[in-house]
Amino acid sequence: MIRVENLKKSFKTKEGGVEALAGINFEVKQGSFFTLLGPSGCGKTTTLRCVAGLERPDEGEIYIGDRKVFSSKEGIFVPGNKRDIGMVFQSYAIWPHMTVFKNVAYPLKARYRPREEIQAKVQKALKLVGLEELGDRLAPRLSGGQQQRVALARALVAEPQVLLLDEPLSNLDAKLRNQMRWELKDLQDRLRTTTLYVTHDQVEALAISDEIALMNRGRIIQIGTPQEIYGSPMNEFAADFIGAANIIHGQLIERPDANGRARVKTPLGELRATQKWRQYEVGKEVLIAFRPEEVLISTQGQPAGNDNVLRGEVQGFTYLGESTEFHVVVGEHKIQAKADAGILLKRGASVYLHIPVEDCLLIRRGEV
Questions:
Q1: Residue 83's CB: how many other CB atoms inside 10 A?
Q2: CA nearest 115: which of 82, 342, 123?
Q3: For the whole model, what pTM was predicted?
Q4: Do residues 156 and 179 lie in contact, with contact meaning Cβ atoms separated by under 8 Å?
Q5: pLDDT, tens digit, for every residue of 313-340?
Q6: For the segment 191-204, what is each residue's pLDDT rounded down to a tens digit?
Q7: Distance separating the N- and C-terminal Cα atoms of the chain
Q8: What's domain 237-363's architecture?
């Protein structure tokens, strides 16, 4: 439904040119929820604005459905109001002097639709977002969550091919953001509107996306499902940006076996790790990454016959309600291990850490 090919965009500043997009490629399937995720300045909003027709790329092509809406080679640039899209901005951008009904009706009035059609479609859109009783209320008299629903209804009222959302929940408090996150995903599941979403919030992206494109420095680092992005990061940036990760430098001392498992020499001792993404040469420096919740912590003595068992000392812990995060010193390294909240360990306690080989991943160094 959305296809972006070799998209490039630079901006001129007083200090010179800034490369915002360095030739990115991705495809959003019909009816799916696709998220551009990354830190501030990575190019995700610029990408969204290019798809929306609010920015003109320097190079590349953009398709919405079967229609080519931008091509640098062919000189094609379809204006945003001709692209059959709905968009929700971070600031909501609703008009304070208008009622809820008039705000939502605006896209249809701009298209000179008949009054009866406007009435029916606005009521349908308001019902979708749970505001059917507030059509006569002025926008400033709404809560933040209600204003966000108005912006969403306005984007949906003309039944666009594509819905574009630019960090729409970032101005809400934590509890309301969590509520709106589930409402937004539920609405998208019911309507099956192809959605391109921008956020820097990792939890948000993991919770609502069908697929995620992780971006950094104008490039796409990795594309995959939330489970793939979190469970199988490709490089150091992906492992470190999404959630928490223990990252250990090492040297490959044995080629991976048929199951992709390799031996790595590290400052913590020899570890066995799983290779998923690329081939590494024996003797080369590598990185090992594993999540805190994948570390099994024990005080009962070293497990018999298990690989990747480390002995350490509890330096501190953080109680998180549903779990406790322990900071364990092994040699000169600090390892994070997340355990059940019922496990009580004092500072200075001697413990064993076991990292399952399948959760101990070989990854690339660097940010791109």
A1: 21
A2: 123
A3: 0.89
A4: no
A5: 999 999 888 899 999 999 889 999 998 8
A6: 899 999 999 999 99
A7: 27
A8: Beta Barrel (2.40)
